[in-house]
């Protein structure tokens, strides 16, 4: 009987425990879930708060407005704030930039003129970019190249450490400019690009320069090197020693062809903002450079170039068949080309 009682008591004890255990376990699990939930929520709230703060700070930096430039209303389309991909312009982000293109013909003084512009702290002219044919294959490649230049992503020796205020390039009329003039005019007017036309009044001097440069490209008298421009009087004298023979029969037709090309270019681009310069005028009157700086809206500076003029003085000493040329032009509207002179 005692054994039975003892067994019954043990058995009863064993059976009662499971009834109390689920409630305790439920409470423990519930408490654990609550603690984890509170912990997870606190972490999420901290991350959201930090992320929002950072986002607001970043937006504040990016969207910080630049002060309104003190310009006339008509100038607004010509003022730009490029955002280059190749470097950060943060320190100059609020410095406005003007876009330009020097439009000229070979041997018209454009190389010398460009060195004058690049002598300015705030002007970057990137050279004769479209002399490379692949860059002017079609309108699309032309626009891609221009976009890169005007976005300040065309890096070369003309790139400035100072805040650039005017950026551009040198563009010859026979480098796709006349062929795609309609699309390029539209690009200029849409993007706010200003044109600087630079031509030569004395087309006979230009012809001598073309023939001499062509000879130099083949003969390379300067230590086997072709140089379109020189920086010493000695080099200039060597190149000037060559006297070309000019076809007197084709002289006037060739001059008229250049005049016609010039006239067409001015007509094609008359709807753009532009300025017209002549090499001889810039040589004689340096105030012309002040006009260019005013046109580009950059601070006025004294500009200089290291280039040395090659063909100086009277043309009679630079043309081998001078008498034939003189006879062909005397009594014509181009007679002044024979004797007009200037010095640089």
From TrEMBL:
Domain of life: Eukaryota
Keyword Transmembrane helix included in the entry's annotation: yes
Annotated keywords: Membrane, Transmembrane, Transmembrane helix
Segments passing through the bilayer: 23-40
SUPFAM superfamilies for the chain: P-loop containing nucleoside triphosphate hydrolases
InterPro entries the UniProt entry points to: Nod_factor_sulfotransferase, P-loop_NTPase
The protein's name: Sulfotransferase
Organism listed in the record: Hibiscus sabdariffa
Upper taxonomic lineage: Eukaryota, Viridiplantae, Streptophyta, Embryophyta, Tracheophyta
């Amino acid at each position: 009987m005692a054994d039975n009682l003892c067994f019954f008591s043990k058995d009863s004890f064993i059976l009662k425990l499971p009834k109390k255990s689920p409630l305790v376990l439920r409470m423990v699990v519930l408490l654990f879930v609550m603690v984890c939930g509170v912990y997870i929520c606190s972490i999420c709230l901290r991350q959201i708060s930090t992320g929002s703060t950072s986002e607001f700070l970043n937006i504040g930096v990016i969207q910080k407005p630049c002060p309104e430039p003190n310009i006339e209303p008509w100038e607004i389309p010509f003022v730009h704030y490029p955002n280059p991909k190749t470097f950060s312009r943060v320190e100059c982000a609020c410095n406005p930039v003007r876009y330009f293109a020097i439009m000229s013909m070979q041997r018209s003084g454009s190389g010398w003129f460009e060195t004058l512009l690049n002598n300015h702290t705030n002007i970057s002219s990137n050279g004769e970019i479209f002399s490379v044919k692949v860059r002017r294959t079609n309108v699309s490649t032309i626009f891609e190249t221009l976009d890169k230049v005007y976005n300040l992503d065309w890096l070369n020796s003309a790139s400035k450490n100072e805040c650039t205020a005017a950026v551009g390039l040198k563009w010859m009329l026979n480098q796709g400019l006349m062929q795609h003039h309609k699309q390029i005019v539209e690009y200029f007017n849409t993007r706010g690009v200003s044109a600087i036309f630079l031509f030569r009044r004395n087309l006979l001097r230009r012809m001598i320069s073309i023939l001499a440069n062509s000879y130099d490209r083949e003969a390379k008298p300067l230590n086997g090197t072709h140089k379109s421009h020189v920086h010493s009087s000695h080099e200039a004298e060597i190149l000037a020693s060559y006297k070309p023979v000019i076809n007197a029969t084709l002289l006037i037709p060739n001059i008229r062809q250049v005049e016609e090309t010039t006239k067409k270019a001015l007509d094609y681009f008359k709807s753009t903002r532009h300025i017209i310069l002549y090499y001889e005028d810039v040589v004689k009157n340096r105030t012309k450079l002040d006009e260019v700086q005013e046109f580009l809206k950059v601070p006025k500076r004294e500009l200089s170039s290291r280039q040395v003029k090659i063909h100086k003085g009277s043309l009679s000493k630079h043309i081998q068949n001078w008498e034939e040329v003189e006879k062909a032009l005397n009594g014509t509207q181009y007679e002044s080309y024979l004797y007009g002179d200037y010095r640089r």
